[in-house]
Design goal:
The chain has 4 helices and 13 strands. With 169 residues, it is of the alpha+beta class.
Amino acid sequence: MVRNFSCSLSCVAAAACLLSTLICQVSLAAGAGERVELARSGAGSLTVDAEIAGVPARFIVDTGAGMVTVDRSLFKQMRRNGDIREVKRVAARLANNRLQMMTVYEVSHFRVGDTCELGPIEIAVMEGAGRNLMGLSALGRAAPFTIHTSPPSITLSGCGSAPTLAAAH
């Protein structure tokens, strides 16, 4: 009986050691990634500096947006740099619940912060006045990601590992 009891304690100790090792590995993996500073806009949204098709811009981090969207002004600057190709037209439902037709383009690269390159990406262009939104098409490539509110920052784990769009289709 004592022998079985000591075996049970050994098994419990081994299981605790294994669990501790797994927790440590998960914690290390969760901490991995590139941390990029965010700023708060006047309306309280979190924004991030990025470079898209060679043009620096500020984007609202929007987990409710399906795609990266840019306003017409930013798109004109990007187009001057070239390396943009039209892909399709889509109907998008906006935050005000209206549908709007948008043209989707593939751009050569999208970099968040100074170092998080997400590779080529599809973007939608807002007609008229719109906001630059970093939606789930970019955030998904950088996943897993963590948004920190104090101080405002985002940790992106998928930097530099984005597949090419041709491979994704």
